[in-house]
Structure formats: C-alpha cells, structure tokens
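Researcher: Let's continue the batch. This sequence belongs to Gfo/Idh/MocA family oxidoreductase, and it's 333 residues. Same format as the previous ones, please.
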Amino acid sequence: MQGELVRWGVIGCAGIAVRQVIPAIQRSQTGTVAAVASRSKEKAEQTAAEFGVAKAYDSYEKILEDSDIDAVYIPLPNHLHREWTIRAAQAGKHVLCEKPIALNAREAQEMVDACRLCGVQLAEAFMYRYHPRYERIREVIQAGEIGAIRTVHGAFSFNNAKDLDNIRYKSGMGGGSIYDVGCYPINAARFLLAQEPLAVTVHAMFSALHDGVDMSATGLLEFEDGVSLTFECGMWCYGSNELRIVGSEGRIDVPFAYVGKPETLRASVVVGDECRELAVPTVDPYVAEIDDFGRSLLANRLPRFDPEESVRNMRVIDACLASARTRARVSLD
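Model: Same format as before. Here are the structure tokens for Gfo/Idh/MocA family oxidoreductase:
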C-alpha cells in the first residue's frame, strides 16, 4: 500500500455503487476513487465525470491491470462475485464484495482461499453492521439488560415485481429474495447472538413470472437453548425494514434495521414500562464500512470481520434455499 489513502477501483456502475458506495468512498477519511469500469464505455465515462474520477475503463480487466489501484469494490450481479473476486485477488487487489458474497458456501470458501493465497484482504459489504448502534445493541444484550434472549424477528422487503428485467429476478444470476434481502436478518441474528443455527425451516413463494426465483420467504432458524430467529423477506411485498430482539425481561427495537438515512438509524430498549433510545452518533454506515476496511489495509491488519464469517453465512443461506425448495427442515452440522 502506498500513500495515505486507499486507491479504489469500482468494477461495475451498478445502482448501489453510484448511489451509495462511490459517494461513501469520496466522503471517507481513508479512500479515494481512482477508477471506475463498465462494459459500456459511455457508462464508465459518465460515472467518472459525475464523481470527478480520473480514469474510466470499458472493461473490468483493465481496472485490474492498473497498478495505481489498491482495492476494488465489486457490485456486480451475484453470479459474478466469485469470478471477479478471484481475478482481483490474483491481480493483487484487496476486495470489498457486495452481499451475498457468493451463490453458495463452496464458492465463498474458494474466494476466501484465493484471497488468502494471494495475500489480499476480502470483506463482504454488509454495511449495516458497521453502524455503531449494532455494537451498542450487543453491549445491551451482553449486559443482560433485557434478560435472556428468547427470540429475534427480522423483516426486510419491498415491492419491485413489475420490473421484470431486474437482475434480482434472474435465477441464473443469483436472483431471489433470500439472496437479496433475507440475507440481512439472517446475518444480523448470527452477529448479535454470536452463534450458528442448528437447523432452518423456510417456506417461500417461487414465481414463474420472475424466472422461478423466490419472491418472498418466511423462515425459522433454530439456535441453542430454544432461541430462534423468525424472518420474512420479499420483493413482491409491502415494504419492511426492521429487527426486534426479545428477551425474558425486555426487548430491543431496531427500525430501519438494514438501510436508511443516517438520522433514522437508531434503536430503543424497552424494559417494563420504560423505553429509552440508545445514544448513537449519526453515521453513514457505507462510509463507516469503507473506513473500517481502509484502516485495516493502511495499517496492514486484518479487517474487522473475518471473511470466514461470510462462508458461514452462506452455509445458512444454502440451507434456507434447500428448505424452501424441498419444504423440509434442514439441519446444519
């Protein structure tokens, strides 16, 4: 790593990159966008001009060949995450890859192994968990303020079903609601409980109109000591975006649990007849994610989240999809 800033290359001009991540890199303390790439020269040049980026490439390969790039952000469709993460690693670039990190746990492990072999860092872009409120929530749980945890409920859904050309509705590209939004409450429960589920049961609605992907799903994850996560997700549903942690003595409510404007990202603790809001700073989680990864690169230390965590998350997603397709409870070893 040279200099005081991480020089980022963005592989693909997807909406999440243009709306959130490129602006976050530009506002971060640790990074700068040095180049953007698209398979469309016009789109690459347009995006570069919009954000004042010096270099625009008309292929993903060219951005990997650029010796001035330290790290790449990959917002490509899910089925391309493995290929371009491994190619980036082989080119000596650190990688921040959009969620879900891969199509299955096997692919995720291959990505982790390739990055480790090439001596580069890999992180999955679950930006929500970089917001300080989640550490405060963990502190409240660990302090026993709401008693023993009994259950967690998460919901994340939206309705965009009329957009039939959307990549979320292409089965071969890794489409479906569990991949797209169900992964958030699954990841959040595992993060907050600090354990892996023992079994999963998921019921889903698969739509022939949308290439057979799961357009909505409801699931149960069984953890130790009778603790559970119930979750709902969907792309053909009225919008939801929340998380609730229920204990024996109280609960924690998290509105705008996964995405939202920085001023809406809060949480409240309810115990008995009292409700208090957790004191957390107003932070953009995308900027926090970029700076956390950037500081690990500049200091030559491991990122906050071990990439093996992404492999474990994919194992749960694999089980959820298997359960939904077979309509059976799936155990995890």
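Researcher: Any comment?
Model: The radius of gyration is 20 Å.
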